[in-house]
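Run folding on both entries below.
>entry_1
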Amino acid sequence: MDVPLWLWLAVLGGIVAMLAVDLFAHRKAHVIGVREAAVWSAIWVAIGLAFGAYIWSAYGAEFGQQYFAGYVIEKSLAVDNVFVWAIIFTYFAVPREYQHRVLFFGVLGALIFRGIFIAGGSVLIASFSWILYIFAAFLLWTGYKMIRQRNEHLDPEKSKALRLFRRYVPTTDAYHGQRFLIRRNGLLMATPLLAVLVLVEITDVIFAVDSIPAIFAVTDEPFLVFTANAFAILGLRAMYFLLADLIHRFIYLKIGLALVLIWVGIKMMLKVDLFYIPTTISLAVITTIIGISIYLSLRATRGQGRKAFQAPVTPPFRVATDEEIAALQPVWGRASQRQATADTDRGPDSGERR
């Protein structure tokens, strides 16, 4: 697949432009409702499908099917990612109007990290073809482990990353709007929103370790791997607000995702030296597994409505008052002498965490 430099630049420029539009559209903190999330989800899916149609038209059916296979894999695995985000936001009691900002930067970080992973994976595969056996074995093991642990969920309180963050980064006990950092009494401090962002990024890196090898099982083309990932990830924020309160209904989806990983692991192992399974068959198998798992899930839970995760009785963090926010010093630069003196007289916040 011969991809000219201008097409790479056009895709990257388009992604940056779409992120900018999304950030501008949600520049003010507000609760994103189901209707707004559905509209944005439809927009992002339409963009992903339109790009796949372009690949199909410009480069042929084989590459078009490879793109769609990768897109379906990433989009399906993203539902599990949404489930984890819901747990994190619930544990931290993040106000719904601040969640989009965390997810925006989380997705931005995910695009960067996945780009690095894809570049590294492409180099490894090109240099050492036998590494596909390792990727295949990893996918098989991950699928098996996912089935065994299908009823286990992330516990943010036990996160080593979170413990390290709290230990080394001075953190306030309150959300200060959409700010990730504040300065108080001359000290630069993180807000709980930054801790949430760090945990979201780490969990996405963990998910990428599964999804990137899975897409390499259906296509060797770095351009298709990256674009399938990118266009699937761009719609993750809208998907979260659309599905977060419905996750309890997808009871069989994790089994379906595990079977997809096992299938692509088998496909990758066979294609090294034995037999190449046509992309048409792979795409049909993947969509069938996901479709059946979703259908059986919704059928088994019919009649159940939207249900948010149970928030903690005593939230670990509070929301800062307007007076506290107004008294903050500029994050970058020096506060005036009068403001610094006033802050010193007030004394440090008793709820700070170090």
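>entry_2
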Amino acid sequence: MAQANGGEQATTYGRAVTYEEKLPKRWTVGTLLVLTAWVIWQGTKLLPEDSTVWLVIVGSSALFAVVFNGVPLSKRRYNRIRVRDGQLTVGRETIPVASLTPESIREAREQPPASELMALLKSSTPDELAEMRRRSRELGPPRLMGGAWAVPLGMEEFAVETEEGEALLIATHDRERLLEVLSRARQQG
């Protein structure tokens, strides 16, 4: 903070807003503990006579660890979210928060969650559904930020737009908090 004229304190708000989304680790830790316990238990039964069988068990357990933790590993690489120094980083992609339109952030806050959206779609008339399809074809699908192919399980998504008119889809664990942080960073930046 620096002193402004008249003794007031001025702050660079957009750069002061920080946010980092923590990824859940319970599943990863749990699966690794179970597989490690399994390998150790098998080691007490098989070693030293049947070391080849035990090595096969170790290899298959490592394979199971990768399979069971594929989604958390993907989330860590492609969907980790940070807002720092006026930059939004999602996975491997970084854009300035100032490039997001305030209107799209406001609209994203008003978008219903996926569960409410499904209920809305089920209760819509065929004419309303046709109109929604027509409008979505005009806009085209938004691009998922971060480099992933799809929104991972357990995450919510919302769409925002850049000043250049590009529609972006952001997958998050805490939609309301991220939108509030983006709104503050955009207003104060």
